[in-house]
Amino acid sequence: MSTLSLACQLMCASEAAYAIDPTAPSGQYNPLYLPGTTTIDPNKVVYQKQYDALGLIGDPYIVTDLQIEACLVGKTNTGIIVAFRGTLPPALTWDSFFDWLQDFFAVPTSNINLPGEVHSGYLFAVISLIDGVKNAINALDPSGSLNLFMTGHSKGGGMAPIAAQYMKGAFGIQTTQTITFAGPNPGNADFCKVYNQENPNDIRYANYLDIVPLLPPAPNTISDIEAIPNLPGFILDLLNDAKTWNYDTVGGLWYIDSSKTASYISPDYEPILLAVRLGEIGSTIGSGDISAIANAHHADCGFGYMQGACNGDVCTT
After folding, report:
1. What span, in angstroms and rounded, lies between the C-alpha atoms of 235 and 258?
2. CA pair distance 181, 38, nearest whole angstrom
3. Which of 43, 44, 102, 198 has the most other CB atoms within 10 Å of its CB?
């Protein structure tokens, strides 16, 4: 049984989802094990602390599209946890970083099961997994009486709110709470307005120097970024494309500062903090410190998201 806070438990689930091989089949099994064994894959030991800390009741269901998308659905003493697998952080080169960064920009699109418009790439990823996720939830909770939590890190954090709203619109399944980590903005202002009204207790965690939670950029973010001197032309082109998309945020913000301490940020203070965050990111990029930008996005032990969400309760030496 897990004794972790809900945020820490969901952070662990988000990290454990990285143990899933997206080309592995869907089913109920431990994603850390070598196929057909009860031996942990040496390449997946990095996820063991978080996986064990989850306190899963039985093996989780693994849902994949046999290509790149993956999700972990498990039962704990808290309820049912659905954790979407994110993208891997960029390599420590500027070419890799810019190539990876471009994946977070996408024209929003509509769907009959969703209000407004959402990120087209994340919607495609959600739809590719959603039937398997629903079946896994039903298998673990046939009566539908347990709490249901959605989560994810990075791309998984962008998928989770879309999946929660889609589950409600398509299947009438209500998510108890969604907590995301390093999640990009999921949709436009129309989507986010409805989502926030219907899910007032949802939370998003963002870490010091992590640029992904600011993408695709909302209009006020675009204005602030454009004020940063000496931006590469590539970034300016992306910003220009994004101006008409009208992306926005969902959930209350918990910000992890440079000391790896998480604090709730009131909506009134968010614009002030945004300017500070962008200044820090711009200064770091200007100094050429790509490792600091990449490390800010990590979900592993020793980095900001695990420390901020779990306060050292999981990643002990």
Report:
1. 25
2. 30
3. 44
Q: Tell me the β-bridge partners of 151.
A: 83, 179
130 confidence band (pLDDT: 50, 70, 90): very high
Q: pLDDT at position 99, please?
A: 52
DSSP 89: P
User: Which of 1, 102, 127, 94 is closest to 53 using CA atoms?
Assistant: 1
C-alpha distances out from residue 86 to 69, 158, 209, 241, 265, Å: 8, 9, 18, 24, 25
Cis omega (within 30 of 0) on the bond before 42?
Answer: no
Integer Cα distance of 298 and 317 in angstroms: 18
Is the predicted pLDDT of residue 98 greater than 80, yes or no? no
**Six token digits for residue 39:** 């031996």
Superfamily of domain 6-309: Alpha/Beta hydrolase fold, catalytic domain (3.40.50.1820)
Whole-model pTM? 0.95
Q: Count Cα neighbours of 159 within 13 Å in the Cβ-side half-sphere.
A: 27
pLDDT value for 123: 94
Query: How wide is the angle at C-alpha 284 spanned by C-alphas 280 and 289, nearest 5°?
Result: 155
User: Domain-by-domain residue ranges, the chain?
Assistant: 6-309
pLDDT band at 113 (very low <50, low <70, confident <90, very high): very high
| 3-state class (DSSP) for residue 224 | helix
CA distance 199 to 191: 12
Other beta carbons within 10 Å of 11: 29
- For the stretch 215-266, pLDDT in tens is 999 999 998 888 777 667 777 888 888 899 999 999 999 999 999 999 999 9
DSSP per-residue codes, 120-140 = HHHHHHHHHHHHHHHHHHHHH
Give 301's Cβ-side CA count (13 Å radius): 15
Query: Could you give the dihedral angle defined by the CA atoms of residues 170, 174, 177 and 179, in that order, rounded to the nearest 10 degrees?
Result: -10
